[in-house]
Specification:
- By secondary structure, the chain is of the alpha/beta class.
- It has one domain: Aldolase class I (TIM Barrel).
- The protein is 28% helix and 16% strand.
- It is built from ten helices and 14 strands.
- Helix 1 packs parallel to helix 2, helix 3 packs parallel to helix 5 and helix 5 runs parallel beside helix 6.
- It starts with 7 loop residues before the first strand and ends in a 29-residue tail after the last helix.
- Bound molecules: P-hydroxybenzoic acid (PHB).
Length: 364
């Protein structure tokens, strides 16, 4: 029976365990939207993870949607991330960067020249974001023109190249939580005509083209993808047929040979099987469309994570909040030790408090 502590090959990497650190937005980037010494310490403390996936990191200035989130497009950002990856590798760890474009979940005050956010659509959701002035309604977006899509794909390619220059072991493309890529996937948002709107094939086209471009640039074995077929996070209704949409997408991507697919089950930070869903999502059927490593996430703990692995539902489990407050999560799970609860008041923004000051078992 597979256990959390069994090694596994993910792309070119041999992971010593199946306990992954999920991407976690912490809004502590320093001037220039890059990591500083605090991030170096934070990620190094968590190097016991089978693989760290960094906080969501924008691929371009237009990809930003919140205050003080880091980017991976400028040479200064690459140099700053190099400090992080060197520290994680020195501590024996492995680290991917999550490549993010928020699309319409943004505010003009965060964008170059006060620009409107870009999306698949001109429709604004009721969502809010956090900008310099505090919580604000997101700004009205504008639909990208088809002629702008090659430039967007180029931004992803450039960010993936920058990630390798910064010493990352690979990248995870953020296709979840109703940010830009899911704004193209779902028919509840995408109201376009043309090659990127309408049919499932057309709505999936952008993600497929981005994954292909990154695979050519850095290798599919260094590239993962995160999806969230059922979440209504960011005030976004579900697709009319999520099962068909996501099975098509994953089937299209399977021949590329990606390192993994990472699925948030159900509502992000909420129930894995939401009761208001018209039909429960069949995650096993989605997994059957893919021959690479399969990662699940959302609220897993010491009891149900081993069960999901043993049942063959997943090869890897990503832990979010437990990794905030337990830098030595792998050791604690192995020891059957109690997990420290995180303090939500220090999740977003601030300094060392609630970030690098959670003790390990030994230092408590
Ligand atoms: C957030 O900033 O709250 C956030 C960012 C990325 C996610 C989810 C939440 O995927």
């Amino acid at each position: 029976m597979t256990s959390l502590f069994d090694p596994i090959q993910v792309g070119d990497l041999e992971l010593p365990n199946r306990i992954l650190m999920a991407p976690l937005t912490r809004n502590r980037a320093v001037a220039g939207l890059k990591p500083g010494p605090l991030q170096v310490e934070y990620y190094q403390q968590r190097a016991g993870a089978g693989l760290i996936i960094t906080e969501a990191t924008q691929i371009s200035p237009m990809g930003q949607g919140y205050l003080d989130t880091p980017g991976i497009y400028s040479t200064e950002q690459v140099a700053a991330w190099r400090q992080v990856t060197d520290a994680v590798h020195a501590a024996g760890g492995r680290i991917f960067v999550q490549l993010w474009h928020v699309g319409r979940i943004s505010h003009s005050s965060l964008l170059p020249g006060g620009a409107r956010p870009v999306s698949s659509t001109n429709q604004r959701p009721n969502a809010r974001t956090f900008a310099a002035e505090g919580f604000v309604d997101v700004s009205p977006p504008r639909a990208l023109r088809d002629a702008e899509i090659p430039g967007l794909i180029e931004d992803y390619r450039h960010a993936a190249r920058s990630a390798l220059d910064a010493g990352f072991d690979g990248v995870e493309v953020h296709g979840a939580n109703n940010y830009l890529l899911e704004q193209f996937l779902r028919d509840s948002v995408n109201d376009r005509d043309g090659p990127y709107g309408g049919s499932i094939e057309n709505r999936a086209r952008l993600v497929v083209e981005i994954m292909q471009a990154i695979a050519v640039e850095i290798g599919a074995s260094r590239t993962g993808l995160r999806l969230s077929p059922m979440t209504t996070f960011n005030d976004t209704p579900r697709d009319s047929d999520p099962q068909a949409l996501f099975e098509h997408l994953v089937s299209q991507l399977d021949p590329l040979g990606l390192a993994y697919v990472h699925v948030i089950q159900g509502e992000t930070g909420g129930p894995r099987y939401p009761e208001d869903a018209a039909r429960p999502f069949d995650y096993a059927a989605l997994k059957a469309c893919f021959s690479g490593c399969w990662m699940l996430n959302n609220g897993y703990g010491p009891d149900d994570a081993p069960r999901a692995l043993a049942a063959g539902e997943a090869d890897l489990i990503a832990f979010g909040r437990p990794f905030i407050s337990n830098p030595d999560l792998v050791n604690r799970l192995r020891a059957g030790a109690p997990l420290a609860p995180p303090n939500p008041e220090t999740f977003y923004g601030g300094g060392a408090e609630g970030y690098t000051d959670y003790p390990t078992l030994e230092t408590r």
